Amino acid sequence: MAKLSSPATFALILLNLAAFFSLTFLHSRELWLALGLNIYFLEKLYIFQPLTSIFMHAGTAHLLMNMLFLYQVGTMSELYLGTKKFIIFYIVGGVLTQILSFIYIYFAFENEKFINLVGASGALCMLFGMLATSVLYSDKKTWFGYFAIVVAMSFLPLFMGINVAWYAHFIGWAVGCLYAKFYLKRADEVL
Fold it and tell me: Which of 71, 70, 41, 68 is nearest to 53 (CA)?
């Protein structure tokens, strides 16, 4: 039997699918609000929300797009970092990205009644930024091409009337770039 080359990536995909279909089956607004990242994080001290919100998705299209991106970027990231480092980076960096996104929401949308942040997009853009910075550090045109993809996936849906947490994409990208710049060896240093 062949060994799975990206076990953590596939485990994350399965966890996202399980969370989505469980919540769809339970159809509980209270559970949805408890697990997404929102003002309950502060008001009710739901300190688990930055982690659980990464595995929540707003609908089937949101889930499928994120899982396709996780498969592509997660597989490359896991092969580059190794399974253990990848899963730690994904979880810790994803939680950091969610917390920074929450801080942005808290101050930028103070007149909004209630915003529930869900999805893995910030964590995925973090992986994308890490790969772009660590692997493509000397190829600025390609690096900016990758960044253009983040810009497109952040703003094109808004022009189509789809609500997207574009700020989470940019925060995730920045976290990934900073991690690669300060904590990873560049590809030429490894070879």
Answer: 41
